[in-house]
Design goal:
The chain is an all-alpha fold and 206 residues long. It has a domain at 57-198: Tetracycline Repressor, domain 2. The protein has 10 helices and no strands.
Length: 206
């Protein structure tokens, strides 16, 4: 293993260790000492890779955005309707909310520090853009109900995503996120898409 590869692995290990701590304790509740200890590195090693906790938070957001871009590429190229792509993307998010600290930490730091702007809102901003792009594609393909504004549809879908994260993080709801998401889509699809489109969409994802 080359020195560069070891350095990259250490950096990624720091990012993932920090994501788990931020997810569990919040951005303000996790110290750099906590992160270094959790990752098994010295503070000097930490500062070799990151100059501050803010920069570390940005790295977590960036890794979460990479996951999101891969999911968008996958659903957009799956050969399904644009509305189904939106549904499928939200189910990818549901799986992350259950199993991926990078995404959960990105949401939590956005709640705590979102008023500070970048980098704390990077994942949420990219999620909004992805949803808007897919829904504009649905509108252009004639899949959405007549008179429905894309901006309103984006607000609806984004609200569902953020609302689910908050409900499960707070413990107000439990069980599988995906199952509840499928139920939400069964309710909302008829008001979002044309009947022929909504009836063909799989609410639990394709």
């Amino acid at each position: 293993m080359t020195k560069q590869t070891r350095s990259e692995n250490t950096r990624l290990h720091l990012v993932r260790s920090a994501a788990e701590l931020f997810d569990r304790n919040g951005f303000s509740g996790a110290t750099l000492e906590d992160v270094s200890r959790s990752a098994g590195v010295t503070k000097g090693a930490f500062y070799f890779h990151f100059s501050s906790k803010d920069e570390l938070a940005g790295a977590i957001q960036a890794e979460a955005c990479t996951l999101l871009r891969s999911a968008v590429h996958r659903v957009a190229g799956a050969g399904v309707s644009a509305v189904q792509s939106v549904v499928d993307l939200t189910h990818a998010l549901a799986r992350w909310l259950e199993h991926e600290p990078l995404v959960r930490a990105s949401f939590r730091t956005a709640r705590e520090c979102g008023q500070r702007g970048k980098p704390f809102l990077d994942f949420a901003t990219e999620l909004r853009t992805a949803i808007e792009t897919l829904l504009r594609g649905a509108a252009q393909a004639g899949e959405l109900r007549a008179g429905l504004r894309v901006a309103d549809a984006v607000t609806l879908v984004l609200g569902v995503c953020i609302g689910l994260e908050m409900l499960w993080w707070s413990g107000l709801r439990s069980g599988g996120v995906g199952e509840s998401l499928a139920g939400i889509w069964r309710i909302t699809l008829p008001g979002l898409a044309l009947p022929a489109v909504s009836s063909a969409v799989m609410p639990a994802g394709s």
